[in-house]
TrEMBL record:
This is Uncharacterized protein. Keywords: Chaperone, Hydrolase, Nucleotide-binding. Residues 10-197 form the CobW/HypB/UreG nucleotide-binding domain. Residues 262-334 form the CobW C-terminal domain. CDD domains: CobW-like. It comes from Darwinula stevensoni. Gene3D superfamilies: CobW-like, C-terminal domain, P-loop containing nucleotide triphosphate hydrolases. The lineage of its organism: Eukaryota, Metazoa, Ecdysozoa, Arthropoda, Crustacea. It catalyses: GTP + H2O = GDP + phosphate + H(+). One of its GO terms (molecular function) is nucleotide binding.
Amino acid sequence: MTDAVDVRIPITLLTGFLGSGKTTVLNNLLKPSFWERLLHAPPLTAVIMNEFGSIGLDHQLVGDTQGPMALLNGGCVCCEIQGSLVPTLKNLWMGRRDGKIPPYERIIIETTGIADPTPILETLLRSEWVAKRHYLDGVVTTVDAVFGNGQLDQHFEALRQVAGADRLLLTKTDLADATTIQQLESRLASLNPSAPISHVQHGNVNPDNIFKLRAYHPSEPVKAKQWLAADNFRVITASLPLKQPSILNASAPSHGGTDRRIRSFSLTFDHPLPWAGVSEALDTLVEFCSHRLLRMKAIINVQEYLGRPIVLHAVQHLFYPSVELPAWQTASKRFTC
Ligand SMILES: Nc1nc2c(ncn2[C@@H]2O[C@H](COP(=O)(O)OP(=O)(O)OP(=O)(O)O)[C@@H](O)[C@H]2O)c(=O)[nH]1
């Protein structure tokens, strides 16, 4: 599907550990004055804020917003109140359809600081009702430049927020020294090689790092290449046959080798692969490793579809329908995932 025909509403998941600057970023994005500087009309945005406490406070910190705001309080939308997300999206959508709320063009969901984004992604991607009317544009994670390292050491949620991100915003770089920032950046790159990292001070973010990421929706070869960011991964060269224990147990050290709980790697194949083999390998991956798999992205050169790259992605055990791209961008047609 291309931009021209996809009229569904994009959803951005804004996550990040406690106090890492999510609301500060959100606040800026919703301010008309922020967009005036960019000579751009602010997109009318609906916000869903999830707060842990039964009385939400964050929404009171959000200034002027022209779009609707929905609050999900009293638990985390990744677990206790996971079931509230789709009804909230439905209420917003029906209000928009019936003209009761402004016709918002996009949605930002701000999670709690201790949310695991993966179950939220699952909820969004699994619901047919949601998928018909919305698409997940991407996951944006804020990381505190001062406390980020310690939070990654101590809180598994912080690791998962980083590992599941499509963009990483390193916040409070005005407060951290250059060495701390550099060390944290290389740790983030090792945890999630495919997510570009931007420095953000006081929420002053470039909207291009938040919107139109189309992270689950690569519609052109050029975007697909950026989306995969395969060059940043440690490569494991694999050979046929696909269904090999070595692939399933692949555990290449991450760049820094410090975060043993989450590792990232890529596999490349020099020759086109038979679809049956790919499919069997993926089934095996789901059967034996899905509980350990956070995210998978692939561009595959399949024997049966020569010349047409096939894009695949998964969040945990959930695999999404493959997308066929019109052509390969470069001469390289290696299967990378
Ligand atoms: N100096 C500095 N302070 C910042 C920056 N970004 C955020 N802050 C401050 O950090 C504090 C926490 O920021 P929030 O935006 O509320 O963080 P949050 O992630 O929404 O927090 P929770 O909702 O509690 O998880 C606030 O006092 C912000 O003003 C920054 O880049 N530099």
